[in-house]
């Protein structure tokens, strides 16, 4: 990873400022010996919240909705103007204990952590044409295309990777019960569901899940039907079990795609083709 020393004092000041505005929750050192799965716990009935205002401001500033229905990021401006604040936000998140949050706030915490950490690593390596051009190592030192297996962040003293946030912490809480959660985790690629131009919050979570789901299913990169054959995003192949198999995927598409798509899907029982564009969703291209 490129050196971060160039951000120096501004990064430290931004970090301290964001921490000061976060609703603090004490670090639980006893959790350090646990695995990532221990962070999947939330506290039913909790009224605690985390302030995601700093991330919300950054997303509103640098996420650019396109006329083609795809949200892109203005990476050059974000890197020069907002990277220090992003690092401060990530530091503040790591000072909180998400297991003390209620289920919706817990999901919002980890979804924002996932998206912010992904943005951070891409901004550090920018310019790149794809997130898969960022080659990082896992705990064993093996190199991979993309940052998902590298332990990029720490929560409650537990070092975790993006894959662990998605698979060990978040997916157990939504998967087949509510696969819409997939639409809020972002890989910053053209083929990915849109990065929202706002932070995810517990208060808005249901509306954000609904909006993100409909936006992707009704976009050609999500689903299209031509000549009675379905072409869909590879997301539905990778996580087919979370949607209840092929039949569940098609039912999901019909439910959220609107009457016209539902009509086109009627009587189809298989997906003919999957596709995914790994090109970086870069507003400057």
Strand content: 5-15%
Q: What would the principal axes of the Cα set say about the shape?
A: globular
Oligomer: single chain
Could you say which structural class the secondary elements and strand pairing correspond to?
A: alpha+beta
Write a brief structural summary.
The protein is an alpha+beta fold and 285 residues long. Helices cover 39% and strands 12% of the residues.
Give an account of the 3D structure:
Strand 3 (135-137) and strand 4 form a beta hairpin. The longest helix is centred in the middle third of the chain and has 23 residues, at 103-125. It contains nine helices and nine strands. It has a domain at 5-25 and 50-208. The protein has a three-stranded mixed sheet with strand order 7-8-9. A two-stranded antiparallel ribbon has the order 1-2. Mean pLDDT is 90; it is low at 1-33. With 285 residues, it is α+β, with helices and mostly antiparallel strands.
Task: Write the topology of this structure.
Blueprint: H1 8-21, H2 53-62, E1 63-65, E2 71-73, H3 75-94, H4 103-125, E3 135-137, E4 143-145, E5 151-155, E6 158-161, H5 162-170, H6 205-217, E7 223-226, E8 229-233, H7 235-238, H8 245-256, H9 259-265, E9 273-275
Parallel strand pairs: 8-9
Antiparallel strand pairs: 1-2, 3-4, 5-6, 7-8
Helix pairs in contact: 1-3, 2-3, 3-4, 4-5, 8-9
């Amino acid at each position: 990873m490129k050196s971060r020393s160039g951000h120096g004092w501004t990064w430290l000041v931004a970090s301290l400022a964001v921490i000061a505005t976060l609703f603090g929750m004490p670090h639980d050192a006893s959790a350090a010996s646990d695995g990532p799965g221990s962070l999947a716990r939330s506290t039913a009935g909790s009224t605690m919240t985390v302030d995601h205002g700093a991330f919300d401001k950054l997303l509103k500033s640098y996420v650019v909705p396109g006329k083609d229905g795809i949200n892109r990021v203005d990476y050059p401006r974000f890197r020069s103007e907002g990277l220090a604040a992003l690092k401060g936000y990530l530091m503040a998140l790591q000072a909180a204990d998400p297991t003390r949050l209620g289920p919706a706030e817990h999901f919002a915490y980890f979804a924002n952590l996932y998206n912010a950490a992904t943005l951070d690593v891409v901004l550090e390596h920018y310019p790149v044409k794809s997130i898969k051009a960022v080659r990082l190592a896992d705990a064993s030192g093996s190199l991979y295309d993309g940052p998902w297996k590298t332990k990029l962040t720490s929560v409650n003293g537990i070092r975790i990777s993006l894959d662990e946030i998605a698979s060990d912490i978040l997916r157990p809480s939504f998967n087949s019960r509510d696969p819409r959660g997939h639409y809020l985790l972002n890989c910053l690629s053209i083929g990915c569901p849109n990065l929202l131009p706002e932070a995810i919050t517990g208060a808005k979570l249901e509306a954000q899940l609904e909006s993100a789901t409909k936006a992707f299913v009704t976009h050609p990169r999500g689903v299209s039907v031509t000549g009675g054959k379905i072409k869909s995003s590879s997301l539905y192949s990778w996580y087919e079990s979370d949607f209840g198999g092929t039949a569940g995927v098609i039912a999901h598409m019909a439910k959220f795609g609107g009457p016209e798509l539902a009509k086109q899907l009627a009587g189809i029982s298989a997906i003919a083709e999957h596709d995914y564009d790994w090109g970086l969703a870069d507003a400057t291209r």
